Amino acid sequence: MTQGAPDVVLDRVAKVYGDGTVAVDDFSLTVGKGEFVAFLGPSGCGKTTTLKMIGGFEEPTRGDITIAGARVNGVPPERRSTGMVFQSYALFPHMNVAENVGYGLKLRGLDKAARAQKVDRILELMGLDDVATRKVDQLSGGQRQRVAVARSVVVEPDVLLLDEPLGALDANLRSRMQSELKRIQKQLGITFIFVTHAQSEAMAMADTIVVMSNGRIEQIGSPAEIFTRPATRFTAQFIGNNNLIDGTVSAGASPRLDGPLGSFPVKPGSPAGPASIVVRSDRMRFDHSTLGDGYDCAIEGTLIGEELVGSVITYAVQVAPDLIFHTEQHETMTGHVPTLNERVRLRWPSGDALVLAG
Ligand SMILES: Nc1ncnc2c1ncn2[C@@H]1O[C@H](COP(=O)(O)OP(=O)(O)O)[C@@H](O)[C@H]1O
Ligand SMILES: [Mg+2]
Question: Please, what are the domains in the chain?
């Protein structure tokens, strides 16, 4: 998982704020040099707090943080080799782009020629060389965002901490900035720790995703691992595209899960006891004669919605009063195409379903 030597290590870190709020608990993580890690989780799960502790803006209540081999507990932000791009970054309005980007170098006492050289290089890398002499209020949202990143990158931190930096951008720009950030990160070899609540953003950029809920780590893995093998019910649900069925798995050679939605065969070897079946929406099919015998599970419901994105249609099927399943089908799906409010039957192979205990 880690790519290079450990760069940032959190060892059983916890943060309890003065009012008793446990924001982060028992958080252990090793980030390799040059790795792009995303903290992914819903609002309030402790992402910003963890990032601030790495940057030195909050002190851990318990546990140790090590950066480049040295314990940094108690070390102020300016004496750590970290940079931080905050959720709401403030650029200096009276300075132009190049001056904004060079400000940190000036603080560090670099002379004008040395500053210009570094600033020019970053501006070019970030595609900002054309606007170097513009005031920041003459920039688009995406350009401002890039200035904020350039300003943090130019001082060559070993680790850059980014707190939802793309949140304010519209969808098109956000996806462009995602690939640009990833390119710059790889080019400079800086370790990135990136906070987001959007799973698509984490999936698009990160080498490693840390899924968080309630101040704790739910799962650490590559985007592919998190997507195909969610380890917990929370991750399966948060990542989306998954249908969950709760119940109890019976013991025996042909185990089944029984619950409020019915009785379903599950993979042999599934642990007996309370569990959830997780079926990815692209693994569910509308019942059709061409489905093979492998499709040994079925559930009925009412088609209540459909959405076409690209060439994939996502159908929403109400399978219980408070439960909607999704099935993704290719636009060119053969056979009967159901219409809204029609009763439908969804089928899937038990071999394609994950069974998560708990
Ligand atoms: N300064 C603070 N004092 C008390 N509670 C805080 C403070 N900052 C954050 N919290 C609480 O800590 C929890 C985690 O917050 P935060 O780290 O900001 O989460 P996230 O970035 O994932 O949205 C939340 O319950 C939040 O309300
Ligand atoms: Mg936050």
Answer: 6-228 (3.40.50.300), 242-357 (2.40.50.140)
